[in-house]
Amino acid sequence: MIDIIVDNQAILEHLQTLINHSTQLRPAMKQIGEVLKESTQQRFINTTGPDGERWFLNSVLSTLIDDNKVGDRPLTNHGILGNSIDYQMLGDDGVMVSSPMEYAAMQQFGGTKAEFPFLWGDIPERPFLGISTDDETEILTILRNYLES
Questions:
Q1: What's the pLDDT tens digit per position in 6-39?
Q2: Which domain holds residue 42?
């Protein structure tokens, strides 16, 4: 084993700052929450998932059954689901992005009438929650800047 003894006040202060920052991540997590909230809401405008794949369009039957639907762009008519996206802090070192809407999971994962008899038809998955490549880059930048500050 090798012991390294540092006898330099400036280095010790910087090391202590780094230790403090790495154990008190709340400010960085709040920034990450804001970034993920914004990018998730943007997915409703772009109608794409975190992987960049386009969402399945509304079916013709869907637009005929629901007089409120305009066109074939899913989840965009009223903006309720997209506007409900928010983040919550999980302690001081975590963040969760979610929607309180009951139907959010059905839109995220999809479902079939066989699984959920109350549905009028099958619902294709339209993932909106998740971390895209751009999100990952932004998260790493936030963490790097936070630890370097």
A1: 566 776 777 777 777 777 889 999 999 999 999 9
A2: 9-148
Q: What pTM did the predictor assign?
A: 0.78
Q: Give 72-122 pLDDT, tens digit per residue.
A: 566 666 778 999 999 999 998 889 999 999 889 999 999 998 998 888 788
78 phi and psi, to 5 degrees?
Answer: -105, -20
- Neighbouring CB atoms inside 10 A of 2's CB total 3
- The domain total for the chain is 1
Q: What is the 3-state secondary structure (H, E, C) of the chain?
A: CCCCCCCCHHHHHHHHHHHHHHHCCHHHHHHHHHHHHHHHHHHHHHCECCCCCECCCCCHHHHHHCCCCCCCCCCCCCCHHHHCCEEEECCCCCEEEECCCCCHHHHHHCECCCCCCCCCCCECCCCCCCCCHHHHHHHHHHHHHHHHC
Q: Domain for residue 1, yes or no?
A: no
Residue 129 lies in a domain: yes
